[in-house]
Amino acid sequence: MTNTSENSRFLKACRREEVDATPVWFMRQAGRYMPEYRKLREKYTLLEMVAQPELAAEVTLQPIKAFKMDAAILFADILLPLKPMGVDFEFVKGKGPQVHNPVRTAADVAALKPVDTEASLGHVMEAIRILRGELTETPLIGFCGAPFTVASYMIEGGPSKDYRIAKSMMYNAPEVWHAFMEKLTTVLVNYLMAQIDAGAQAVQIFDSWVGALNGPDYEAFAMPYSKRILDAAHATGVPVIHFGVGANTILPLMKKAGGDVIGLDWRIPLDKGWDIVGHDRGVQGNLDPVTLFSTPELLEKRVKDILRRADNRPGHIFNVGHGILQHTPNENVKAVVEMVHEFSKR
After folding, report:
1. Rounded-to-integer distance, Cα 326 and Cα 38, Å
2. Catalytic residue among 15, 32, 267, 309, which?
3. How far is C-alpha 305 from the geometric centre of its chain's CA atoms?
4. Which one is catalytic: 15, 37, 41, 309?
5. How many angstroms separate the first and last alpha carbons of the chain?
Protein backbone atom coordinates (compact mmCIF):
# COMPACT_ATOMS: atom_id res chain seq x y z
CA MET A 1 0.00 0.00 0.00
CA THR A 2 1.40 3.42 -0.94
CA ASN A 3 2.00 5.83 1.92
CA THR A 4 0.79 9.28 0.90
CA SER A 5 0.93 10.88 4.36
CA GLU A 6 4.15 12.82 3.62
CA ASN A 7 2.27 14.76 0.97
CA SER A 8 -0.75 15.39 3.24
CA ARG A 9 -2.39 18.78 3.62
CA PHE A 10 -1.36 18.84 7.31
CA LEU A 11 2.38 18.50 6.60
CA LYS A 12 2.08 20.90 3.65
CA ALA A 13 0.45 23.48 5.93
CA CYS A 14 3.23 22.97 8.50
CA ARG A 15 5.68 23.85 5.73
CA ARG A 16 3.49 26.83 4.65
CA GLU A 17 2.83 25.27 1.24
CA GLU A 18 -0.44 25.65 -0.69
CA VAL A 19 -3.17 23.15 0.27
CA ASP A 20 -6.47 22.06 -1.28
CA ALA A 21 -8.32 22.78 2.01
CA THR A 22 -7.34 23.83 5.52
CA PRO A 23 -6.20 20.82 7.57
CA VAL A 24 -7.89 20.20 10.93
CA TRP A 25 -7.04 18.12 13.97
CA PHE A 26 -7.87 18.63 17.64
CA MET A 27 -5.73 18.51 20.74
CA ARG A 28 -6.93 15.66 23.00
CA GLN A 29 -8.87 14.33 20.00
CA ALA A 30 -8.27 10.78 21.26
CA GLY A 31 -9.93 10.60 24.63
CA ARG A 32 -12.76 10.48 27.06
CA TYR A 33 -15.41 12.33 25.03
CA MET A 34 -15.46 9.35 22.61
CA PRO A 35 -17.66 6.32 23.49
CA GLU A 36 -15.04 3.96 21.97
CA TYR A 37 -12.45 5.33 24.38
CA ARG A 38 -14.74 5.19 27.42
CA LYS A 39 -15.41 1.53 26.68
CA LEU A 40 -11.69 0.79 26.87
CA ARG A 41 -11.32 2.88 30.02
CA GLU A 42 -13.79 0.57 31.78
CA LYS A 43 -11.11 -2.13 31.52
CA TYR A 44 -7.83 -0.18 31.74
CA THR A 45 -6.35 2.88 33.46
CA LEU A 46 -4.83 5.58 31.27
CA LEU A 47 -1.29 4.50 32.23
CA GLU A 48 -2.11 0.84 31.45
CA MET A 49 -3.37 1.86 27.99
CA VAL A 50 -0.28 3.92 27.25
CA ALA A 51 1.98 1.06 28.41
CA GLN A 52 0.48 -1.32 25.83
CA PRO A 53 1.52 -0.19 22.33
CA GLU A 54 -1.38 -1.95 20.58
CA LEU A 55 -3.92 -0.22 22.86
CA ALA A 56 -2.20 3.18 22.55
CA ALA A 57 -2.28 2.77 18.76
CA GLU A 58 -5.95 1.76 18.83
CA VAL A 59 -6.91 4.87 20.83
CA THR A 60 -4.82 7.10 18.53
CA LEU A 61 -6.75 5.77 15.53
CA GLN A 62 -10.25 6.15 17.03
CA PRO A 63 -10.80 9.83 16.06
CA ILE A 64 -9.21 9.29 12.63
CA LYS A 65 -11.73 6.55 11.86
CA ALA A 66 -14.67 8.48 13.37
CA PHE A 67 -14.02 12.02 12.15
CA LYS A 68 -11.47 11.95 9.28
CA MET A 69 -9.02 14.32 10.99
CA ASP A 70 -6.04 15.45 8.88
CA ALA A 71 -3.48 14.34 11.50
CA ALA A 72 -3.27 11.74 14.24
CA ILE A 73 -1.61 12.61 17.54
CA LEU A 74 -0.03 9.81 19.51
CA PHE A 75 -2.05 8.73 22.56
CA ALA A 76 0.38 9.33 25.43
CA ASP A 77 0.88 11.85 28.23
CA ILE A 78 3.40 14.62 28.88
CA LEU A 79 4.21 13.11 32.30
CA LEU A 80 5.42 9.71 31.04
CA PRO A 81 9.14 10.57 31.50
CA LEU A 82 8.58 11.18 35.25
CA LYS A 83 8.56 7.57 36.47
CA PRO A 84 11.91 6.65 34.84
CA MET A 85 13.36 9.78 36.49
CA GLY A 86 12.25 8.41 39.87
CA VAL A 87 9.15 10.59 40.33
CA ASP A 88 6.02 8.56 41.08
CA PHE A 89 2.56 9.77 40.03
CA GLU A 90 -0.93 8.53 39.31
CA PHE A 91 -4.08 9.91 37.73
CA VAL A 92 -6.74 10.44 40.41
CA LYS A 93 -10.37 10.71 39.30
CA GLY A 94 -11.58 14.30 39.55
CA LYS A 95 -8.12 15.61 40.47
CA GLY A 96 -5.89 14.79 37.50
CA PRO A 97 -2.26 13.76 37.94
CA GLN A 98 -1.00 13.58 41.54
CA VAL A 99 2.77 13.39 42.10
CA HIS A 100 3.64 11.42 45.25
CA ASN A 101 7.23 12.63 45.69
CA PRO A 102 7.42 16.23 44.40
CA VAL A 103 10.80 17.75 43.49
CA ARG A 104 11.35 20.72 45.82
CA THR A 105 14.94 20.77 47.09
CA ALA A 106 18.48 20.56 45.75
CA ALA A 107 18.62 16.99 47.15
CA ASP A 108 15.44 16.08 45.22
CA VAL A 109 16.98 17.43 42.02
CA ALA A 110 20.24 15.54 42.65
CA ALA A 111 18.25 12.31 43.12
CA LEU A 112 16.61 12.54 39.68
CA LYS A 113 17.80 9.69 37.48
CA PRO A 114 18.98 9.96 33.87
CA VAL A 115 16.63 8.11 31.52
CA ASP A 116 17.44 5.40 28.99
CA THR A 117 14.60 6.33 26.64
CA GLU A 118 14.38 3.05 24.72
CA ALA A 119 14.57 0.93 27.87
CA SER A 120 12.07 2.97 29.94
CA LEU A 121 9.77 4.44 27.28
CA GLY A 122 10.23 1.98 24.43
CA HIS A 123 6.49 1.16 24.48
CA VAL A 124 5.81 4.71 23.24
CA MET A 125 8.17 4.21 20.27
CA GLU A 126 6.60 0.81 19.56
CA ALA A 127 3.14 2.46 19.40
CA ILE A 128 4.57 4.96 16.87
CA ARG A 129 5.98 2.14 14.74
CA ILE A 130 2.62 0.31 14.79
CA LEU A 131 0.79 3.50 13.83
CA ARG A 132 3.13 4.28 10.93
CA GLY A 133 2.24 0.86 9.54
CA GLU A 134 -1.50 1.52 9.96
CA LEU A 135 -1.67 5.17 8.84
CA THR A 136 -1.16 5.37 5.09
CA GLU A 137 -2.75 8.76 4.36
CA THR A 138 -2.73 10.50 7.74
CA PRO A 139 0.49 11.85 9.28
CA LEU A 140 1.38 11.12 12.90
CA ILE A 141 2.28 13.80 15.47
CA GLY A 142 4.54 12.97 18.42
CA PHE A 143 4.84 15.29 21.42
CA CYS A 144 6.34 16.17 24.76
CA GLY A 145 5.64 18.73 27.45
CA ALA A 146 7.72 21.89 27.58
CA PRO A 147 10.22 21.95 30.47
CA PHE A 148 8.40 24.69 32.43
CA THR A 149 5.06 22.86 32.35
CA VAL A 150 6.52 19.42 33.20
CA ALA A 151 8.72 20.90 35.95
CA SER A 152 5.71 22.69 37.44
CA TYR A 153 3.78 19.41 37.74
CA MET A 154 6.81 17.80 39.37
CA ILE A 155 7.25 20.65 41.87
CA GLU A 156 3.61 21.46 42.65
CA GLY A 157 2.61 17.80 42.90
CA GLY A 158 -0.32 18.22 40.53
CA PRO A 159 -2.36 20.95 38.82
CA SER A 160 -2.05 24.41 40.39
CA LYS A 161 -3.94 27.70 40.30
CA ASP A 162 -0.99 29.97 41.07
CA TYR A 163 2.22 27.89 40.60
CA ARG A 164 3.36 29.32 43.93
CA ILE A 165 5.80 26.51 44.80
CA ALA A 166 7.33 26.32 41.31
CA LYS A 167 7.73 30.08 40.96
CA SER A 168 9.09 30.36 44.50
CA MET A 169 11.86 27.93 43.50
CA MET A 170 12.58 30.10 40.44
CA TYR A 171 12.79 33.27 42.51
CA ASN A 172 14.33 32.01 45.77
CA ALA A 173 16.56 29.15 44.61
CA PRO A 174 17.41 29.91 40.97
CA GLU A 175 20.46 27.61 41.07
CA VAL A 176 18.19 24.68 42.08
CA TRP A 177 15.67 25.63 39.37
CA HIS A 178 18.32 25.77 36.62
CA ALA A 179 19.93 22.49 37.73
CA PHE A 180 16.49 20.88 37.64
CA MET A 181 15.69 22.31 34.19
CA GLU A 182 19.04 21.13 32.79
CA LYS A 183 18.33 17.55 33.87
CA LEU A 184 14.71 17.59 32.75
CA THR A 185 15.46 19.18 29.36
CA THR A 186 18.02 16.48 28.56
CA VAL A 187 15.38 13.80 29.25
CA LEU A 188 12.75 15.59 27.14
CA VAL A 189 15.12 16.16 24.20
CA ASN A 190 16.04 12.45 24.14
CA TYR A 191 12.38 11.44 24.46
CA LEU A 192 11.28 13.61 21.54
CA MET A 193 14.23 12.56 19.37
CA ALA A 194 13.33 8.91 20.01
CA GLN A 195 9.77 9.59 18.83
CA ILE A 196 11.09 11.18 15.62
CA ASP A 197 13.47 8.24 15.08
CA ALA A 198 10.53 5.85 15.55
CA GLY A 199 8.58 7.63 12.79
CA ALA A 200 6.72 10.68 14.16
CA GLN A 201 6.27 12.98 11.13
CA ALA A 202 5.71 16.19 13.13
CA VAL A 203 6.06 17.02 16.81
CA GLN A 204 4.32 19.39 19.18
CA ILE A 205 5.73 20.91 22.38
CA PHE A 206 2.92 21.57 24.89
CA ASP A 207 3.56 24.47 27.28
CA SER A 208 0.15 24.24 28.94
CA TRP A 209 1.09 26.29 32.01
CA VAL A 210 3.37 28.90 30.49
CA GLY A 211 0.63 31.54 30.82
CA ALA A 212 1.63 31.76 34.48
CA LEU A 213 4.83 33.59 33.47
CA ASN A 214 5.45 37.18 32.42
CA GLY A 215 7.90 37.94 29.60
CA PRO A 216 11.09 38.49 31.66
CA ASP A 217 10.49 35.35 33.77
CA TYR A 218 9.77 33.26 30.66
CA GLU A 219 12.94 34.56 29.03
CA ALA A 220 15.11 33.88 32.09
CA PHE A 221 13.66 30.65 33.49
CA ALA A 222 11.85 28.75 30.73
CA MET A 223 12.69 29.89 27.21
CA PRO A 224 16.33 28.64 27.04
CA TYR A 225 15.14 25.11 27.88
CA SER A 226 12.19 25.09 25.48
CA LYS A 227 14.55 26.45 22.82
CA ARG A 228 16.92 23.54 23.30
CA ILE A 229 14.13 21.02 22.60
CA LEU A 230 12.70 23.02 19.70
CA ASP A 231 16.15 23.43 18.10
CA ALA A 232 16.91 19.70 18.41
CA ALA A 233 13.57 18.74 16.84
CA HIS A 234 13.90 21.37 14.09
CA ALA A 235 17.35 20.03 13.15
CA THR A 236 15.79 16.68 12.20
CA GLY A 237 13.72 18.34 9.47
CA VAL A 238 10.30 17.36 10.85
CA PRO A 239 7.83 20.22 11.36
CA VAL A 240 7.69 21.50 14.94
CA ILE A 241 4.56 23.02 16.56
CA HIS A 242 5.10 25.18 19.66
CA PHE A 243 1.95 25.68 21.74
CA GLY A 244 1.29 27.58 24.96
CA VAL A 245 -1.93 28.29 26.84
CA GLY A 246 -2.62 31.86 27.99
CA ALA A 247 0.62 32.85 26.30
CA ASN A 248 -0.56 35.75 24.13
CA THR A 249 1.61 38.32 25.97
CA ILE A 250 4.75 36.25 25.26
CA LEU A 251 4.08 35.19 21.66
CA PRO A 252 7.13 37.10 20.29
CA LEU A 253 9.34 35.25 22.79
CA MET A 254 7.74 31.90 21.96
CA LYS A 255 8.49 32.56 18.31
CA LYS A 256 12.09 33.38 19.29
CA ALA A 257 12.29 30.09 21.20
CA GLY A 258 11.35 28.24 18.00
CA GLY A 259 8.70 26.34 16.11
CA ASP A 260 7.64 26.17 12.45
CA VAL A 261 4.05 26.59 13.64
CA ILE A 262 2.97 28.56 16.71
CA GLY A 263 -0.21 27.42 18.45
CA LEU A 264 -2.70 30.14 19.39
CA ASP A 265 -5.31 29.72 22.11
CA TRP A 266 -8.84 31.13 21.72
CA ARG A 267 -8.21 34.32 23.70
CA ILE A 268 -6.70 36.18 20.75
CA PRO A 269 -8.22 36.65 17.25
CA LEU A 270 -6.33 34.42 14.84
CA ASP A 271 -5.28 37.22 12.49
CA LYS A 272 -3.93 39.35 15.37
CA GLY A 273 -2.03 36.38 16.75
CA TRP A 274 -0.55 35.67 13.32
CA ASP A 275 0.48 39.29 12.90
CA ILE A 276 2.35 39.09 16.23
CA VAL A 277 3.98 35.77 15.38
CA GLY A 278 4.84 36.93 11.87
CA HIS A 279 3.85 35.42 8.55
CA ASP A 280 7.16 33.59 8.24
CA ARG A 281 5.61 31.00 10.62
CA GLY A 282 2.49 28.93 10.41
CA VAL A 283 -0.20 29.14 13.09
CA GLN A 284 -2.47 26.55 14.64
CA GLY A 285 -5.86 27.20 16.23
CA ASN A 286 -7.96 28.58 17.60
CA LEU A 287 -11.58 27.59 18.30
CA ASP A 288 -12.64 27.83 21.96
CA PRO A 289 -13.18 24.15 22.93
CA VAL A 290 -16.37 25.11 24.82
CA THR A 291 -17.87 26.26 21.48
CA LEU A 292 -18.12 22.55 20.64
CA PHE A 293 -21.01 22.40 23.15
CA SER A 294 -23.01 25.05 21.23
CA THR A 295 -25.48 25.01 18.32
CA PRO A 296 -24.62 24.15 14.71
CA GLU A 297 -25.40 27.79 13.80
CA LEU A 298 -22.87 29.22 16.27
CA LEU A 299 -20.27 26.61 15.32
CA GLU A 300 -20.62 27.55 11.66
CA LYS A 301 -20.27 31.23 12.50
CA ARG A 302 -17.13 30.65 14.59
CA VAL A 303 -15.50 28.31 12.07
CA LYS A 304 -16.13 30.80 9.25
CA ASP A 305 -14.72 33.65 11.36
CA ILE A 306 -11.46 31.79 12.06
CA LEU A 307 -11.11 30.79 8.39
CA ARG A 308 -11.82 34.39 7.32
CA ARG A 309 -9.07 35.65 9.60
CA ALA A 310 -6.66 33.03 8.21
CA ASP A 311 -7.59 34.30 4.72
CA ASN A 312 -6.42 31.11 2.92
CA ARG A 313 -2.85 32.09 3.73
CA PRO A 314 -0.55 29.03 3.56
CA GLY A 315 0.39 27.81 7.03
CA HIS A 316 -2.93 27.69 8.91
CA ILE A 317 -3.87 24.48 10.73
CA PHE A 318 -7.37 24.54 12.24
CA ASN A 319 -7.52 23.32 15.85
CA VAL A 320 -9.13 24.08 19.18
CA GLY A 321 -7.34 26.65 21.35
CA HIS A 322 -6.71 23.94 23.98
CA GLY A 323 -7.76 20.28 24.31
CA ILE A 324 -11.24 18.89 23.60
CA LEU A 325 -13.22 18.67 26.84
CA GLN A 326 -14.90 15.65 28.38
CA HIS A 327 -18.60 15.26 27.38
CA THR A 328 -18.07 17.18 24.09
CA PRO A 329 -20.83 16.03 21.68
CA ASN A 330 -19.24 13.78 19.05
CA GLU A 331 -21.60 15.05 16.35
CA ASN A 332 -20.24 18.59 16.84
CA VAL A 333 -16.64 17.41 16.46
CA LYS A 334 -17.60 15.69 13.21
CA ALA A 335 -19.53 18.76 12.03
CA VAL A 336 -16.58 21.12 12.62
CA VAL A 337 -14.15 18.88 10.72
CA GLU A 338 -16.59 18.78 7.79
CA MET A 339 -17.22 22.56 7.96
CA VAL A 340 -13.51 23.38 7.93
CA HIS A 341 -12.94 21.21 4.87
CA GLU A 342 -16.03 22.49 3.05
CA PHE A 343 -15.64 26.21 3.79
CA SER A 344 -11.89 26.30 3.10
CA LYS A 345 -11.86 24.45 -0.24
CA ARG A 346 -9.41 26.21 -2.53
Report:
1. 10
2. 32
3. 24
4. 41
5. 28
**Which secondary-structure segment (H or E) carries 219?**
none
Count of residues in the chain: 346
CA 231 to chain centroid, in Å, comes to: 17
Among the listed residues 9, 16, 28, 302, the single catalytic one is 28
Q: Is 116 a catalytic residue?
A: no
- What pLDDT digit, counting tens, does each position of 263-279 carry? 999 999 999 999 999 99
pLDDT at 128 over 80: yes
All structural domains of the chain, each given as residue ranges with its CATH number in brackets, are 5-343 (3.20.20.210)
The one-letter amino acid code at 274 reads: W
Predicted confidence (pLDDT) at residue 1 exceeds the cutoff of 70? no
Active site (annotated) includes residue 41: yes
Asked if 32 is an active-site residue, the reply is yes
pTM of this structure: 0.97
The question of whether 218 is a catalytic residue gets the answer: no
- With vertex at residue 142, the alpha carbon angle to CA 136 and CA 143, rounded to the nearest 5 degrees, is 160
Q: Which of 153, 163, 218, 225 is catalytic?
A: 153
Catalytic residue of the set 15, 37, 44, 77: 77
Largest CA distance in the chain: 58
Cα angle 213-247-109, degrees, rounded to a multiple of 5:
40
Task: Please work out, in degrees rounded to the nearest 5, the angle formed at the alpha carbon of residue 264 by the alpha carbons of 98 and 99.
Answer: 5
All residues at 6 or more sequence positions from 109 whose CB lies less than 8 Å from its CB, including other chains: 103, 176, 179, 180, 183
